[in-house]
Write a structure and sequence with these properties.
11 helices, 19 strands, Sulfite Oxidase, Chain A, domain 2, 35% helix, Immunoglobulin-like
Length: 501
Amino acid sequence: MNGPSRTDVLERVPGVRAVVVATFAGVAGVGGSYAVAGFTPSFVAGPIAGLMARGMPDIVIRYAITVLGDLGDQLNLVTAVAIATALFAGAALAGTAASRRTGVRPVGPLAAGGLAAVIALLVTGAPLASVGSGLAVGVVLAVAAVASVPEIDGVSEGRRRVLGGAASAVGLAGGGYLLGSSAPTASGAGRPLGVSGALRSEIDDLLGAADRQSLGVDGLEPLVSEEFYEVDINATDPTIDAAEWELTVTGAVEREVSYTYDEIRGMDAENRFVSLRCVGESRNGEKLDTALWTGVPIPDLVEPAGPGEECCVMLRADDGFYEEFPLSALADGFLAFGMNGETLPRGHGYPARALIPGHWGEINVKWITEIEVLEEEVDGYWEERGWHGTGPVNTVAKLHHERQLDNGRMRVGGHAYAGIRGVGSVEVSTDGGNSWTEAELSEPLPGDDVWRQWIHTYDPPNGEHEVVVRAVEADGTVQPADETDAFPSGPSGWVSRTVRT
């Protein structure tokens, strides 16, 4: 005997129809928010995702970073979208109930839209995007109500209501996605960098030289990364108007000083190649990249404030992030406002970010707004969660390329990085670590805090063999073999891979 069809369920249980239509309205509400806000903190799912990321138990956050990686961020965002959809669906159900109680059809869309707008405003604090959510929720309920009125042979009122809600939700959500994705999010971010002719010429020369020095191996990032990794504490990045942005130096100083964006851009700028590595990546992960940055030395900004011989400094960002580290590390610090000949992209800290040579990526604070000199140590954002990534980066040689050539030989390659200690050589073993051969290295880029590419070509044995790589620092120190996980102080150890021929 056949069970009831989905259509039968919709007909026999009126509450199911209301929930289905309300869910469609919830989806449309999220789309309405995205249409107005784009992928900014005003998008309703953004604050929800950020709240979850900051409020989860430390062990869950640790698992998401070290095991799930980027997938953890994606799951967090999907969950936030689902929560926002449920909140708007609840508003739609409340509006539907109000319409039934009063017997007045227009009450439902109006009440639901108003309640959805209030919910969005409480979550985001963004009035315009909240109105977008409210309108979308109200429109879906209105279309569903109108679709249920005409008599159509063979199509029940409940089914017409559901189909009307579905069609309007698809249109609103799809249109909202297209509108939000095409909207500009940060004026001035990621645009050609306006600098003097001499500085522009130097940028072009440095980028050209880096391109020529790259080993030209397919699938291996060149010396200037084409896709630079991003790690943030929030799902959405801040949208900052450079004309309103300000950097202040505060704390244990003789006088507080502030700088506008134009004042910093008016200072004598310089270019630096700097590599960044994420403390939470895996040993052979891909969160290690290099760019050519344009900016000014941070000491030029701090010294006018008259800092004393204090222990530490706290960098604070517009997105609520903060990190503390020794004041001495700031001596070679750099405030970047340009990246590879353009203004900073929004995802890399526009209008300005800090670069602290040789240290893990977490203290290279993006969207920086304050440099606070401290008299005593305090925990930064990640230290409060058990991490210890404020120290010098660990040396690593990564193995990201493996290819058997037409002549039967095997080629392996990757990148090596040792912070400001520098990479002197990379050694490769093709027999599991019993013997070692020096690999070919790319010529070093200008600067003290840069990676190098390496490749090694050899005659492989038949069958399986284990390739192991290790870096040797400029002073001859061999990268330690002992393996540690990313938590709490960053991954270390030699990278190995089983190669089959």
